[in-house]
Every structure is written in C-alpha cells, then in structure tokens.
Sequence to fold (304 residues):
Amino acid sequence: MSDDLVVRTSGLTKYYGRFLAVDGLDLEVREGDVYGFLGANGSGKTTTVRMLLGLVLATSGTVEVLGRPMPAQASRVLPEVGAMIEAPAAYPHLSGRANLALFDAMGRGSRRRGRADRVDDALERVGLGAVDGRPVRAYSLGMRQRLGLANALIRRPRLLVLDEPTNGLDPQGIREIRRLLLDLNAAGTTVFLSSHLLAEIEQMCTRVGVLDRGRLVLQDELAHLQRPTGRMVVRTPDVAGVLGLFDGQVEGRDGDRLWIRVDDPATLNARLVGAGIRVAELAPEKRTLEEIVLEAAETSGDRR
Fold:
C-alpha cells in the first residue's frame, strides 16, 4: 500500500444471495483527504463503509485501512478510526455523557485516567457541552446525530468514517458540523464522508468517489472535476446583440443567460463593451457537483 493511502480497496465485491450490492470497487483515500463518497440511497454506500470497518465480510476483493488488511487486523486498525454508521448507537436509558463514558471504557486500550475530560471535550466539540442528564431516549434526532459524532471523536482518530453525519440537523447544525470536520481535517484527521447531500459535500471535500448501483463510476479531485470548461457564461438583456456578435460561438442559451466558447475571456469582454452590450454577469463556466454526479451516473448507465 502506498504510504499516503489510508484506505484502499481492490475489486471489493459484496453479494447478498444473488443480489450484487457492491461491484468491484477500487477506492483510494489519501492521507489528509476530505473524501466524499457519493451516491443515491441504495447505491451501496453503507455496505461499502461496513466492509471497510470489518462489520460486513466481502464476497471477494481486498480492503486495507491505515496500511493494514481488514478485517484481519481490525484490533490494530480500529483504535485509530472514529466511525458513525447509519443510526448512532446508544443505550436509550442512559444520558449522553454516561453513554460516551461507557463507550470509551469499552474501547481497546482505553484508560480511566482522563476519561471525564475526553467525554467533556467530545461533547463540547459537537455542541452538546451544556447537555443535561436526560436519557438519550428523550433526545431529538439531531441530538442523537451529534452524540454519535462525539463518540466517533472521543479517541481523537487518525481516520474519521462517517455515514450521513448531518442527518436530522437543522441548517445551523449542519454548518457547525461542517466547520468541525474542516477543523479536524486541518489538524491532520483524514475524513471519509458518505452522503447523498451534494451541496454539503461540495463545500467540504477535496476528493470524491461516485457510486451508482454498486459500481464506482467516478473518482477524482474535486478541483479537477470542476475546472473551467472553456466556455464563458454571459447574462445580458441584450441577447440578440450577443447572438449577432458571436455567431457560431454561442453553444447554449437559457433565457437571458448564454454560454459562449472563447479562447480569451479578456477579448470577449472587450468586444461586449465595444458593442455597447449590457452585461449583468460574465464568468467562466464551472460545473456543479450535481451536474458531475448525474453525468457520471448517466454514462455508467449507457455502458450497461
């Protein structure tokens, strides 16, 4: 395994009976990534995550996490991994603080010394520092999500694996978790984030993998995927004037917005100004993550 890879799978495949849930995945997650693992519900994301953590056995293929094979060396790998998969686990009759203390005590190599401080720090990080002694069964869905994330953070992991971590959170909560994950990443934690919320992933991730019906149809740096396309977006009330001025170069139109293929944006701007064209917007075209994911899924479907 390459020194900078913290997750690598080769030909990872999972059947449930005759149903093919995951089909030959070759994942590569690098040290320092915020890796967005994307796909619609039912595409195989959670099954993949569970195989990475040794919770589900693969039908075929291999998994390496932090340079070690899984699940064979789970006892050495998992103490360095924080995870929250599907619904956060908790004992409903205990408080959040009591749950975290118990989970910490159950962890391999955990020490009693400093446990209370670790629990308090984890709760503070996820916005539950002022939580009272209510049992978890009285928590809202958003509070349960925060508690699950606190459990993932309590050991200060080298790798953080999260499945839909903002489920049930309001917009403010989502922003807080986003800032927390980015701060953790800046401090050296690699983040593997499984989600179907493309807008959130687009604001956080450095690298993405797209899963469609169990197959990895795209894996690349987000900056590379969103590089300028070579077209300029022009929004103007003078549509007819632009069409006449750039005959043959206009490749698309949506109302007062046009897409123009040009080699030099400065020349385009000069010609618009020189012709007296009123311009409300002039910017390079960059594809959204939603457009990229949909295109990858459609291309994959065409090949089947």
Notes: The radius of gyration is 24 Å. The chain has a mean pLDDT of 89. Residues 236 and 279 are 5 Å apart (CA to CA). The longest helix spans residues 171-186.
